[in-house]
Specification:
This protein is of the alpha+beta class and 738 residues long. Helix content is 39%, strand content 17%. The chain is built from 24 helices and 28 strands. The strands form 8 sheets. Strands 3, 4, 5, 6, 7, 8, 9, 10, 11 and 12 form a 10-stranded mixed β-sheet that branches. A 4-stranded mixed β-sheet has the order 1-2-17-18, sandwiched between helices. Strands 15-25-24 form a 3-stranded antiparallel β-sheet. Helix 18 runs antiparallel to helix 19 and helix 19 packs antiparallel against helix 20. It is globular and about 95 Å long.
């Protein structure tokens, strides 16, 4: 069911849906006797074709296209030859018609809401709304390129549903359940077929039409022309040219596997063309087969040393290979790209050499180190498998999609709905990429075993939805932006955190509030760095929900999404703490908040903060090295700033030490003596640690302890590298003059 409503009134759609659910239960498996006729459906459909797009109103509106997903059902995995036809008049409500197919011809142009919708007729003249979900968006592929007036489609094992208007429609959730037919296909009813007297175009004519369409950037239409040309008995030479042209069109529509096949890769014959090799290298590159891409381009460069396109492509592919093998990245360049490109999808390779996934008792799988690593080392850099970006510059009348699945508690609005669609399209266009994604955790969803039917990939939307729900990461444009907001005491706008994606390797990292790695982002690249020294074979963990150190049920509720309760030392300690101590902690925190709101300053204020911090510290029983005392960093940082401002460096260093001790660090030399400053054991890494080490740098500098100042600077950069993801921006963010 689709509903289009003003974004300010989304709950009205939910109420409407709940009412329809009750009606649907009563009508389940019945043939409705009140289907509207063709004229009534056209009268309702045609005025609504602008719904969800720009309107003539002067007021800017943001419309929400809400789609309520049905109970999960599998995609069709039955070969077409084993299916039997069914007519509209025989369709039963709320039923998947197993073993059946229906052929329909569109009688309208399409409209877009949460789905692409047309009115379609069967060979008996009956008409029904047809909704196709998870199709490419308008910017990627116009709806009229997917289905238009007079298009003929075949729906495998059709699903007949109630609509928001209380009417009925066919909905297709799985991309692989719809087959787009040419009007002279043998399965198309005679009524829908092209007139027999129509001119049959030659392969040459169709090829020329395809070339013209490519020139006009109408790549999908070009693919249809080239495919039709190949059916008109072209000569062997014509076949080669047509396939190479179609390969170019496939590349432009991100169908990289099909593009690769059309080049003839890996064998180009004795007279292999440079064009074929270059196109194949592009397909390999976009499939991230960088090693194979390099080998092919090296061969091409030997055959044609003056081919500059090949030389440039080889240099780019070699840069990706170097990133994948070494983990070396130009972070300044990455940040520049993330700022410039929209969506911020960066052209870089993934570095996964130091990690491998293995089974973990009671947790499915986990990610482990394959070599020793130090604090700040790059553990993993991964480009997103798929990434959805919120367009902050969206103006005027616009629409966003909201997917609601009552059964699975899914409520995916905007980018999350976009992400599901992007993944579905990626798996359809490049099915060899599916196994990496479909083996991710997906709860109790029963995936179909069949991967291909009739030589086409099977795409399960509900499996994608479940995997996305368990494995998506929300992310900023860059973690540096979030860091700067925190340092300035600003609240990051919610829209700056709305991007999301799926990173395959990172999805294997299990949860712990006190993780040993930290994740950061630049565009669609995720960087994971060690927050502790790690031995080879160490399981990596990071918090799925960042800990506050307070006891509340919010953490448990959020973690229930993944079906577990955290039993890390922090959570276990909170649960074991006496209720009176928890109450005392909260009272002390409240006092601190009120104290900071007061206009009081000076010695009395400082003394009160010190006493409050010490009282808070006394509510903890276990050593901070075992359980970091996360509620203490704030008062100790405040005291550090106060003493630094008053130039009382000895006291400032003392409170810095208490800050570090509260987070579980062990160290020597954080004093006015000449002994070196050394972190002997790393505790919980928090971004305010950068601030503390920078204060230590300043204090030691003022005390004439230059070597210790340099050591503090080194630790500040290590922590910055961990919490921002890179340290190329350190001096710009924290200039010495500040």
């Amino acid at each position: 069911m689709d509903v289009c409503a003003n974004l300010k009134e989304p709950e009205q759609a939910m109420e409407q849906y709940q009412d329809l659910l009750q009606l649907a239960k009563q009508m389940k498996r019945k043939i409705p006797g009140d289907r509207k006729n063709k004229n009534a459906l056209l009268a309702a459909f045609l005025p609504a074709q602008g719904l969800g797009t720009a309107s003539s109103d002067s007021e800017e509106r943001l419309l929400m296209n809400t789609s309520f997903l049905p109970r999960a059902y599998p995609p069709s995995v039955v070969p077409l030859k084993n299916l039997q036809p069914i007519a509209i008049k025989d369709l039963r409500l709320e039923r998947h018609h197993s073993g059946r197919y229906i052929v329909l011809r569109s009688i309208t142009s399409p409209k877009r809401m949460a789905a692409i919708e047309v009115l379609a007729e069967d060979e008996h003249g009956d008409v029904i709304p047809l909704r196709l979900y998870q199709q490419d968006d308008e910017a990627t592929r116009p709806a009229t390129d997917i289905i238009d007036k007079h298009s003929v489609v075949l729906i495998k094992e059709p699903f007949f549903k109630f609509t928001a208007a209380g009417d009925y429609s066919l909905r297709v959730d799985h991309l692989s359940d719809v087959v787009f037919l040419s009007d002279n296909d043998t399965i198309v009813p005679d009524l829908f077929q092209r007139p027999r007297h129509a001119e049959v175009k030659t392969a040459e004519t169709l090829e020329l039409e395809g070339n013209a369409l490519i020139d006009g950037k109408k790549y999908w239409q070009a693919i249809y022309r080239y495919s039709a040309a190949l059916l008109q008995s072209p000569t062997p030479d014509e076949i080669k040219v047509i396939k190479l042209n179609r390969s170019l069109a496939y590349l432009s529509t991100k169908q990289y596997e099909a593009a690769l096949w059309d080049t003839g890769y890996p064998s180009f014959g004795e007279e292999g063309s440079e064009t074929a090799m270059l196109l194949a290298s592009q397909a390999l590159y976009h499939l991230r087969h960088y090693d194979e891409c390099c080998e092919l381009l090296k061969e091409l460069c030997k055959l044609s040393p003056i081919n500059q396109d090949a030389a440039d492509a080889l240099a780019r592919a070699q840069r990706r290979c170097d990133e994948c093998n070494s983990g070396r990245y130009d972070f300044k360049h990455l940040r520049s790209e993330a700022t410039k490109f929209r969506p911020p999808h960066l052209d870089h390779g993934s570095y996964t050499a130091p990690v491998e996934d293995r089974p973990v008792q009671g947790k499915g799988r986990g990610l482990f180190t394959t070599k020793p690593l130090k604090v700040g080392d790059l553990v993993l850099c991964e480009k997103a498998f798929s990434h959805a970006h919120l367009d902050h510059g969206q103006k005027g009348n616009a629409s966003i999609t909201r997917l609601v699945n009552v059964e699975s508690d899914l409520d995916a609005t905007g980018v999350r709905a976009d992400l599901i669609r992007l993944i579905a399209q990626k798996l359809l266009k490049n099915p060899s990429l599916a196994p990496d994604f479909t083996t991710l955790y997906h709860g109790n969803h029963q995936a179909v075993a069949t991967q291909r039917v009739d030589d086409q990939p099977v795409v399960d939307t509900f499996l994608i939805e479940r995997i996305e729900a368990f494995n998506n990461f929300s992310c900023p444009l860059t973690s540096l932006n979030i860091y700067k907001d925190r340092m300035a005491g600003r609240v990051t706008p919610k829209e700056d955190l709305h991007d999301c994606g799926v990173w395959i390797k990172a999805s294997y990292i299990n949860h712990s509030c006190l993780g040993n790695v930290c994740r950061t982002f630049i565009g669609d690249m995720m960087f994971i760095r060690a927050t502790k020294d790690l031995d080879a074979g160490t399981e990596l963990t990071f918090p799925y929900v960042y800990p506050t150190g307070k006891y509340d049920t919010k953490m448990d509720d959020e973690l229930k999404t993944w079906g577990f309760i955290c039993n890390c030392p922090l959570c276990e300690d909170i649960k074991a703490t006496e209720a009176s101590d928890l109450t005392k902690r909260q009272d002390l925190l409240n006092q601190g908040v009120e104290l900071c709101k007061s206009p009081a300053t000076g010695i009395r204020f400082t003394n009160k903060i010190e006493r409050l911090a010490e009282a808070l510290n006394e509510t903890y029983a276990r050593p901070a090295e075992e359980v970091p005392r996360l509620l203490l960093w704030s008062p100790y940082l405040l005291l550090t700033r106060i003493y630094m401002k008053r130039l009382i460096y000895g006291k400032a260093l003392e409170t810095m030490g208490k800050f570090l001790q509260a987070l579980g660090f062990t160290f020597t030399g954080l004093d006015r003596k000449s002994s070196p400053l050394v972190i002997t054991g790393w505790g919980h890494v928090e971004d305010r640690l950068v601030d503390v080490f920078l204060h230590a740098r300043s204090a030691f500098e003022q005390l004439g302890l230059s070597e210790k100042s340099q050591q503090a600077d080194k630790y500040a950069r290590v922590v910055y590298r961990v919490v921002v993801g890179e340290d190329a921006s350190f001096d710009e963010t924290h200039p010495r003059s500040s």
